[in-house]
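Anyone else keep sequences and structure tokens together like this?

Example one:
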Amino acid sequence: MGHWNSGELALIGIFTVVLGLLVYLDLFVLNKRAHKIPLRESIHWSVFWFSLAISFSILIYVMDQTPGDPERGKTKALEFITGYLLEYSLSVDNLFVFIMVFQKFRVTPQYQPLILKWGIIGALIFRAIMIFIGAGLISQFNWILYLFGVLLLYTAVKMYVHQEDEEDFHPETSPVIKFAKKILPMTQTHHPEKFVVKEHGNFLFTSTFITLLIVEFSDIMFALDSIPAIFSITTDPFIVYTSNIFAILGLRSLYFMLSGVMELFIYLKKGVSILLAFVGVKLLLPLFSPYVFGHEVHIPILISLAVIVGTLTLSILASVPHYLKTKNES
């Protein structure tokens, strides 16, 4: 996993303190009460988190310098930006799942922020565990990267061929949810603003808690693709984790900003499948390139960045006619 220099250690401290304060401010002070987040507020928060991520990449460039390696700061900054944009692109696809979950369980916009808030906190914890386990395994068994590549190619083909719609989506049939309902004492009363209530001296779980479980479980399933994908960009656990965290923190505000215009991302799943195929090939290329080219071939970070930005942009542009048609029909 490598040795962190003093600049990286300082970045870890800055990242932990500043992000901790901002998360607390966002989730527990400014958005303490359940309320529908208006479009303007969601835009402001989305711009804020995106600007903060770009600023952090600049901080990486400035502070992550190593004597004798003047390109290190630039390389790490580019890895962060590329990883962040990759995770952000994949996160937008995850918004479709959240929308369908809320529709299936009839969660009103007023209480959606509550579920997303705790879903994000859970995602931060699970992502940290999965990333550092993955980084530790890669440092000991480098061939795992090739396994990730095969997994991503399989997922890419499966996603491109199968387009899941709302009729196919049945989260309530998940084995995790069925098991939870069997072992957890459930209330029959509707409490959209609470996860646990006390009735007749007993603590009972609500349907809102079950919805949170579905959101959390879907994010874990999503992470099984997104985390191997970012390891195609870098195996530095600090870059992998921080880029993931920034993408997750911007997801909540992005959801409310885009929930009314998701038709603009109707072809995003196709774009995401192409991205997953690209990073899968990128992971497998060092294994097969010597047999094809006579030497190992690695895709430069700038090309990876261009592919990610280009694929996301083209998928949105391809969706514009469908979006305009939907608006005209309505």
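And example two:
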Amino acid sequence: MILFRSFLPVTLLAVALLAGCATATPYQPMTNGYGYTEQRLEADRFRVSFHGNDRTTYDVVADYVLYRAAEITLANGYDHFVVIDRSTEGRQQPGGGPSVGVGLGGFRIGGSGGFGINIGTSVPVGSGGDAYRATIEIQLRKGDKPADDAQAFDARALKASLEPRIRRAGSWL
């Protein structure tokens, strides 16, 4: 029993660390290949991307890239933006989310026993191992958004609308 108790903290730590890896990409600047990036193309034109891991749904990636575009628009003193070009990529990830196996064997008083931890990867159920990246090219504009342009977004209204769905790094712990 003493042997089991000494391994319990190690097991709990391993499970906690792996659980942290098993979450969707938070809204954050690019870190370890996941998150948002932007590139200024001209004074009023940007390319914005968001790359999610295999736990980040297509809808979240699409929302995050638009949210970042709204932030850029407002930070540069503009009111709305127009999406000039957009692309979305989905790709299969090898492996997937982490998995943990813990085994105990034959513990008895005065006898011997065994304990093992197996840590590996597997494709999460329902995810298919897909990872998405959305990229949009935007042009920033001042004034009211044209009502008849489906590619135009009011930056303040969009940001307020998406804010409740934004999960920032560290907000899931």
